Amino acid sequence: MSYPQVRMRRLRRTPAMRSMMQRVTVRPSDLICPIFVDENVKGAAPIESMPGYSRLTISGVVDEARNIMGKGVKAVLLFGLPRVKDEKGSQAYAPSGVVQKAIFALKKEFGDELVVMTDLCLCEYTSHGHCGIVEKNEVENDATLEVYGKIAVCQAQAGADVVAPSGMMDGQVEAIRAALDDAGFDQTAIMAYSAKFASCFYGPFRDAAECAPQVGDRKSYQMGYGNTEGALREIELDVNEGADIIMIKPALAYLDIIQAARSTFNLPIVAYNVSGEYSMVKAAAQKGWIDEKAAINEILTGIKRAGADLIITYFARDVGAWLNQQ
């Protein structure tokens, strides 16, 4: 049968009908809110390239978590800016490191009501800005794995529910799983940045986290954006090494990778709606060129429609508020 017997507009006739027929929806509990905790600030420090976002003190992190939890968002992803950086990124695995303090404060305040996730990398902590140990101008993969294990254990000791290795080092999930298990943290989950692409859309984040490489770039360890098969192979390796959750980053230019991963793997899939994607929408909305709320809802729904179970997004606070008003 076809037109005129079939009329697809019948099911779009009223707002109630359209709502009833929608199959893909975004819930506050689908969202993970990134938070920047900064040892160098005394109050909220606005990030110029990310309108509406700030680097926060530890008490500010607790307040922000309380705010988003009130809107139905149940998870945060912590990024840290230490007071001192060095070539080895030693503050990343210091018991008194800024992220470790923030984890402890969040768990003390909210316990198991909040899922605390932690970025596990070195770029925010190293003086050179790379994600691993640099020797002779090369990022040394295997030397970095040992450090990643230390960071994972330190974050787990502070109370992290999920550690999220983002450096794209070969074997990082296996090394972290072994370190956590050996230290008695076999219940700490790993959310692997499994397919992390070398992307221009990270620019505002690097401004926020003060982690741009001082020399060279990250293309020797992050993926090139023209390689679907390589992305699936990276994900498969992480799954085999013990990842509990897999991630694709960025989201919007990689919806096909999300969909391919959804068709191939049964693990929970996270998509990272990254800083550049956030800032483009904010900038266009400030110019009056797009409807911000409509654009955000369409973007996040598209990411879920592609197959993501969860979305890391800087829009989490706003979207949680909108959804709770419905």
Tell me what the structure shows.
The chain is α/β, with parallel strands linked by helices and 326 residues long. It has one domain (25-325): TIM Barrel. It has 11 helices and 12 strands. Strand 8, helix 5 (172-182) and strand 9 form a beta-alpha-beta unit. Helix 2 (58-69) crosses helix 3, helix 3 runs parallel beside helix 4 (141-158) and helix 4 crosses helix 5 (172-182). It is globular. The mean pLDDT is 92.
Rg (C-alpha, Å)? 20 Å
Overall shape: it is globular
Strand runs, count: 12
Strand order of the largest sheet: 1-4-5-8-9-10-11-12
Named CATH architecture: Alpha-Beta Barrel
SSE arrangement:
Elements: H1 15-21, E1 31-38, E2 45-46, E3 54-56, H2 58-69, E4 75-81, H3 98-110, E5 115-120, E6 133-135, E7 138-140, H4 141-158, E8 162-165, H5 172-182, E9 189-196, H6 203-209, H7 228-241, E10 245-249, H8 255-264, E11 269-273, H9 275-286, H10 292-306, E12 310-313, H11 316-325
Parallel strand pairs: 1-3, 1-4, 1-12, 4-5, 5-8, 8-9, 9-10, 10-11, 11-12
Antiparallel strand pairs: 2-3, 6-7
Helix pairs in contact: 2-3, 3-4, 4-5, 7-8
